[in-house]
Specification:
Number of helices: 3
Order of helices and strands: HEEEEEEEEEEEHEEH
Structural class: alpha+beta
CATH class: Mainly Beta
Radius of gyration: 19 Å
Strand content: 35-45%
Oligomer: single chain
Number of domains: 1
Largest sheet: 7 strands, mixed
CATH architecture: Sandwich
Helix content: 10-25%
Shape: globular
CATH superfamily: Galactose-binding domain-like
CATH topology: Jelly Rolls
Distance between the termini: 43 Å
């Protein structure tokens, strides 16, 4: 009987901890987007985001909000164009230096190679943005990319502008069509990319780019958030569980 009661007590404590977890994580999590406030089927530039046009991009913004395998996400498609959207953020990199996002890449642009100016295309990717006066020419960006061939962990400076650094977080085609979650310490990546401590970023952008290779690409981007490095596995479990209980799904 005592053993049974102890077991019941452990169960109650476990359930209580699970229910309290969101409030204990509030200070360690800065949400950027989870798409829960966007109607499934809505198309184009989502509310709360703005177009972020690039020279010669001819953006089509072939974007739609979808439910995919129980996840609310933004579905990106591109054909011979370059579409980017940005959202203003207010985060402290010292408190929440880790960018966490989920994505599913369906197709890489054929013939793309970001090491060459004439073929510098990528499937769906995520930027962190540091605007700097006097404007776009000095703005610094780190782009987190899934490349078809470059090794994971490598960093490549854009061949079109020296203020953009790409970090290859995943490589190859083996996991195409699968949802995966990434975590990157943006503070440390910035120091490696630009040789100094970062200020707090002011925007996050989502982009898909096929205009150099005149090809097609497709990807989905799910929840995006900044988190404390100390949050660890507890935050990942919470984010994983909560994405399946999105309001309105």
């Amino acid at each position: 009987m005592k053993i049974a009661r102890r077991g019941q007590g452990a169960l109650v404590l476990g359930l209580a901890a699970a229910l309290l977890m969101p409030s204990t994580l509030v200070a360690e999590l800065s949400a950027v987007e989870d798409w829960s406030q966007h109607a499934v089927g809505s198309k184009g530039v989502p509310a709360g985001w703005r177009p972020y046009e690039t020279f010669g991009g001819r953006p089509a913004y072939d974007f739609s909000v979808v439910n995919d395998e129980g996840r609310r996400a933004l579905h990106l498609k591109s054909r011979d164009e370059h579409s980017t959207i940005a959202k203003e953020i207010h985060v402290s990199l010292r408190a929440t230096p880790v960018l966490e996002w989920s994505w599913k890449v369906v197709q890489h642009p054929a013939g793309a190679d970001i090491r060459r100016r004439e073929s510098s295309d990528l499937t769906g990717h995520v930027f962190v943005v540091w605007p700097r006066f006097p404007g776009p020419l000095r703005t610094r960006l780190i782009g987190y990319a899934w490349d078809a061939s470059l090794p994971a962990g490598s960093m490549e400076r854009s061949r079109k502008t020296g203020n953009v650094m790409f970090v290859i977080v995943r490589s190859g085609t083996r996991e195409l069509g699968r949802w995966v979650t990434e975590r990157r310490n943006v503070y440390e990546d910035y120091r490696k990319a630009f040789g100094e401590d970062p200020e707090d970023p002011r925007a996050v952008a989502i982009s898909i780019d096929t205009n150099d290779t005149h090809s097609t690409a497709e990807a989905l981007v799910g929840r995006i958030a900044f988190a404390s490095g100390a949050t660890g596995a507890a935050l990942r479990r919470y984010l994983f569980a909560s994405q399946f209980f999105t309001p309105g799904t």
